Give the backbone structure.
Amino acid sequence: MNPAYMVRQMQENFSDLYGVRGRITSLKPLNPHNAPDEWEIRVLQSFDKGARNVAELVTVDGKPYLRAMRAFMTEKGCLKCHGHQGYKSADVRGGVGAYVMMEPYLAVERAEARTLNITHGGIWLLGLVVSGSCRAAAQNASRSAKPIPTPAGERGTHPPVARLYRRRNLRCRP
């Protein structure tokens, strides 16, 4: 069994289970079924320039997908089938690619963002209500407060903190 066959078998048996599709491809495929598409051609060419992993968000048929590919290196055991194609050990022979439909993940992200926005907005509104209630209570208290009695001749020359202290002490007395 060769690696391309194994990947093809795994995809047929398990791709629906996990929602991930993948395949092995090359610029020089032995099987025409493994020929690369446009995105894979571009990525495989980048492997020839030194890249070893590529991942991108792309749109396929109007739907978002995450596509990723990793370079598939030629090993000594590969040469018995691929040696005639001119490969040597450690050459990039192709790539192992996978693509994942992002719509389910984006739907979860939108739901989480909505929940966070509602929660944080509720906390913010609660803070506004509490802050406004405290301010209104303070204003009502200052309006209904009795004037501070001052000793004769001082005419309210006490600093504001002293007046507050005296007001508090006058109210707290039984």
Q: What stands out?
A: DSSP finds five helices and four strands in the chain. Strands lie at 20-25, 53-60, 63-73, 92-101.
